[in-house]
Amino acid sequence: MSYTFQEALHAFKNDHIRELSLDPDGRRFLKLRSLSRNTLMDRLIHDHHLTIPDISGQRSFQFLYESPLHEQQIEQTIRNIYEEEREVRRASESQLVSELYRVASFDWGGLHQNSLEKTIVDNYVKRIKSYDELCENIDNRLYPSMKAYILCSWYNHWTSIIIEDIFKDHPHVLPAVGLIKKVDFFIQNVPFDLKVTYLPEGFIKEYRKEHHLRPELTLLKQFCRKQNLYFSQDLAEARLLEDLWSKVEDHPSEVARELITQLKHTRLQILQSVRDNPETLIRWLYENQGVRRFDASNRLFLVLVDENDFFGSWKLKRAKPLLDQEIHRYLDRITEFPGYNIDFEWDGEVYTTTADMILISH
Question: pTM, whole model, 2 decimals?
Answer without folding.
Answer: 0.92
